[in-house]
Specification:
single chain; elongated; 5 strands; five-stranded mixed sheet; alpha/beta; Rossmann fold; 40% helix; 2 domains
Length: 205
């Protein structure tokens, strides 16, 4: 629409967009307008709903675990445990590191709201990694993780790993995803809680 004033060009573009939408063409929608939008499976890759489900299962397992019961008992005796939350290692081909970090914040919130332990800020942990000049990957090495836990003043740390298994045959595909999470005692290296949440996505004919 060259030659038209900018306001008229904008009006013409809006009119065209409405006309395309009215003719049954593609249109953008909000989740509030279509509550099932987030539920639609777009691919065999991990999406928001998948990751939330995996973290929710692990969070519930930890909150219901003997480890949490010990923390509750210690809190009653005035000996509240101190816990740090380390990143989840992504061993899949999915580019989900940002989503994993966001969901770790939700995991952190669930532990804080349990009221039974002191949770060290995830941001504080990341700052200390930089301060100690450690690579981010070092937090997945048990001796380095223990060192970092001690520097943070943590008695325990939560960490995990995302893994996948991919199968293809005759044009069909099945991908299994696993989120392993565990609580490790800094002083002894003992695993005090561990859980695996899994889901499967597929493409079938």
């Amino acid at each position: 629409m060259p030659g038209l004033p900018s306001s008229k060009r904008l009006l013409s573009m809006l009119t065209l967009a409405v006309a395309v939408s009215a003719c049954g063409g593609p249109a953008y929608v909000r989740g509030t307008e279509n509550p099932d939008l987030d539920k639609a499976v777009m691919s065999t890759g991990l999406d928001k709903v998948d990751l939330e489900q995996l973290f929710k299962e692990n969070s519930k397992s930890l909150l219901d675990s003997p480890a949490m019961q010990r923390w509750k008992d210690a809190a009653k005796d005035g000996k509240e445990a101190t816990v740090a939350i380390f990143p989840v290692k992504n061993d899949t081909s999915e580019h989900i590191d940002d989503q994993l970090n966001a969901l770790l914040s939700d995991f952190e919130t669930s532990l804080v709201n349990s009221g039974n332990l002191t949770v060290i800020s995830h941001e504080r942990q990341l700052a200390l990694v930089e301060e100690l000049k450690l690579q981010q990957s070092a937090v997945f090495e048990q001796d380095k993780a223990a060192q970092l836990g001690r520097q943070l003043g943590a008695q325990y740390f939560v960490t995990g790993k995302m893994a996948s298994a991919d199968e293809k045959t005759d044009g069909e595909r099945r991908v299994q995803y696993f989120l392993y999470m565990q609580v490790i005692e800094v002083e002894t290296g003992a695993i005090r809680w561990q859980n695996k949440a899994a889901l499967t996505k597929g493409l079938i004919k």
